Amino acid sequence: MAYIRLLYVVTAGLGYFYESSLDKWKKNAFKVNAEENAILERVSKYGIPQRDVILNYQDFQVSYDNQKRTPNWVLEHLTKSNLQTMLISKEDTQRFCFHSDPRINKMFQPDESDYEETGLYPSQLGDKDNHRSTEKSFNDTFNYSNTVPQNFAWQTSVWDRLETYSRYLTHCYKNVYVLTGPLYQPKKDKLEVEFQVIGRHHVAVPTHYFKVLICETNEDSIFHVGCYILPNKCDVVRPLHFYRVPLSLLEDNAGFMLFKDRQSRPVLEILGDIRDFNARRLVYMNQAGLMHVN
């Protein structure tokens, strides 16, 4: 129940509301009088354009941006018991490959050719190592709807440390919720945003990435929250706390509010840092019994 409750609060706060039926959308999203309803029926006679799509997978949820061909965000729920259930071994990974999601028009999805000779890699925002408990969950992470172009060297250094830290927190908390997505930020000396696109599908390459870790404590309605913003480029490998930012700054950059109703939202406390996690992550993961998802 805790998972369902927080999932509702977080996704509602993101401001996305989708229904498969236009009639349901009109009925639930608005309360209109007869005159307003007539106008709505007239202007939406042939449907309402939908650029962003919510995709529900077995173990995670994606908000997908058809225009940029990348997710807006990916939301995961991690528990230690799920991480310790490892049906798919690392040797089995070779059996899986990236593929399109049939629910999205192929013109709005990347494919393998988009990444050729770019030096970039389709990075899974819903990390595959978080979802090895079933073959379906693991395969879901290979949907292109779950990927963004990322520098491979960066992905296997600081970003990998942050992914591992997310899993380690399940040793300290019963439930850990992970929200991850791309950012497109201006350079410090310019008031304009520039970003690369790759391939024939013009897949957007983010300038930065964000990750929010929401950890459920034993006290009802109290959560420890840690927010991170990292550049999408090779850089000096720094401790994870170097990339920590306040929740308000992340919300301002990402363009959403995690907890929309500030009056009734849970109590949010700052997630404590483990300053030496980068240097001693093998020790920490071994102590947590999570070396297999290190």
UniProtKB/TrEMBL annotation:
InterPro entries the UniProt entry points to: DNA/RNA_non-sp_Endonuclease_sf (IPR044929), Endo_G_ENPP1-like_dom (IPR001604), ENPP1-3/EXOG-like_nuc-like (IPR020821), His-Me_finger_sf (IPR044925), Non-specific_endonuclease (IPR040255)
Region (Disordered): 113-136
CDD domains: NUC (cd00091)
Pfam families: Endonuclease_NS
Domain of life: Eukaryota
GO CC annotations on file: mitochondrial inner membrane; nucleus
GO terms for MF: metal ion binding; nucleic acid binding; RNA endonuclease activity; single-stranded DNA endodeoxyribonuclease activity
UniProt keyword list: Endonuclease, Hydrolase, Nuclease
Biased composition range(s): Basic and acidic residues: 126-136
SMART domains hit by this protein: Endonuclease_NS (SM00892), NUC (SM00477)
Domain DNA/RNA non-specific endonuclease/pyrophosphatase/phosphodiesterase: 56-265
One GO term (biological process): apoptotic DNA fragmentation
Positions of the ENPP1-3/EXOG-like endonuclease/phosphodiesterase domain: 57-265
Family: Belongs to the DNA/RNA non-specific endonuclease family.
Protein name as annotated: Endonuclease G, mitochondrial
Species annotation: Strigamia maritima (European centipede)
Lineage of the organism: Eukaryota, Metazoa, Ecdysozoa, Arthropoda, Myriapoda
